[in-house]
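### Sample
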Amino acid sequence: MATTFLKHRWQKILLIVIGAVVLLTIVAVLIINSFLAPKLSAKVKEAVLKGTDSLYTINYSNLDLNILQGKAVLYDITFKPDTAVYSQMKKQGGAPGSLYELHVKRLVISNAHPFEFYFKKKLNVGRITLNEPEIQISKYADKDTDTAKKDKRTLYQKISKSFKLVHIGEILFTNINYKQKNYTGPKLAISELKEMDIKATDLLIDSATQTDTTRFLYCKDVTTELKNYNSKAASGLYTFKVKSVKLSTQTKNLAITGIDLKPIDRAAFFEKSKKDRFTLHIDSAQLKNFDYINYQKSQSIDIKKLVIDKGYFEVFSNYNGALQTTDRLVTFPHWAIRHAIKATLNIDTLDMKRMNVVYSQLNKTSKKFGHLKFNNISGRFLNLTNRADKLKKNNIATANITSYFMGKAKLDLHFVFNLNDATYNYAYKGHLAPMNMSDVNPVLMPLSMVKITDGRLNSFDFDIHSTQKLSKGTVSFLYKGLKVDILRPDYTKKTLISALANAVILKHDNPDDGNKTPRLANEVYIRPANFPFFKTVWHVLLNGIKNCAGVGPAQEKKLNQQTNTEDKKEQEKIVKKAVKEKEKEDKKFKEAVEKKKGGKKG
């Protein structure tokens, strides 16, 4: 069949025509490619210049254009500012606060429509992909300079002579290397991010979208994801890691997973630092309706709802730390919101779920550690703000928290903080469910040298109103059958003092047998200036518990005196015993020497 195909003249003519058409098509495509490539380059460069008031230029080493596939590949792209233009803008008072620079080795444009672009001035592209781009931001001021000389036209108005429409279906940035240089502080601050991806969908610049506030940078949605971020504290004591950070401009949700703040080994930490040691892990944090635009412009934090789900927080008290002598008002939560957080803060609602908190402390006498635990914490915090306009409407922050004390009994807490009161007014009340009182021995024994041998807590309730200096309120501690042992550092029982405590000082029941009226503690507590917030709260409650148990200041003093007396007697016994043992050893030694001398004489 193939050998007879070209025997007829018409077949040869047809083959020649087809070949000519194919050749002409190839030549036409090559001519169009070579013709459109420089036209496209010129249009893009012109659009960048006009769109940025000549501040930025774009260049690339080569452009491969395939008209039939609607594909273009650009190599060695550089998008950078013109420093001379920027200097002129600064002189005129219209310079932006930050400058941007972009370097990309290869950029791929696919599903483009070159003829629509050339004949109708419409840039319509299906996808743009940038692999491993390098982005640098240099920040020179917190805000852009706003003057009358500044061009107030929209981006579309600036480029409308070159483009009637710009539409890109999808823009992908993968494995971004991001660096920011901040020149606004006393020293140059540099931060870097790697393994970051950005996906922008439905970028549209036309007469309709130029004023569309639902779009971010003219895109329907921009999703940013940062993976495996880690940094180290300048002191070398902590490392900070985040598994993933993802932001969607369409949903305004910021999702963070795998947050870890880890200190170095405990012994090494306390050799180098006099501060408490912290460990933090959070599985996930969701910032809902996060105003990322205000945060980007002025570092203002505005969140409708923050949800923290599953994790733990551990505090290890520094046993090498010097006693604080300064006022620890700085540890109060409402002081921190007002003064410690430099940025403008507004969190309408903070929900916490499935968190565990452990406080650990060393008793230098016993050389043992006590661990205070609160398990499965959940809570809701409302109106966490330092914004003046918000405080005028509502200056009260509240917290409702539920946890399991020592992992056993349910504890309900309610806090109220006045966010702009001069005396730092706050209040708290709570209820602890029934539990065996011996469940607190893991923290009570190492820290207080007291062991609860028997007793059942029926309820623990408190209602306290405080300022930074004074706390007043009531404490109710209802229990039955309380018995204790007073311990030595090796946890052996001090028999005489234990008997004294149980027989004379402690009240074994509240209410007492035959008395229907329980003992309540009316607390008035003056805060020592060097006491931090949670230590103040604990001491107020501890004093109330002691008073309900019959251990007031006088009884506690008597018990301490008896303990000191017994300790002295025990020390005297130890000394006498050691002296007697030494005398016995000396006597044996003399007898041995005399015996040896007698043997030699014989």
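Residues 42-227 form one domain. This sample (DUF748 domain-containing protein) is used throughout the tutorial notebook.
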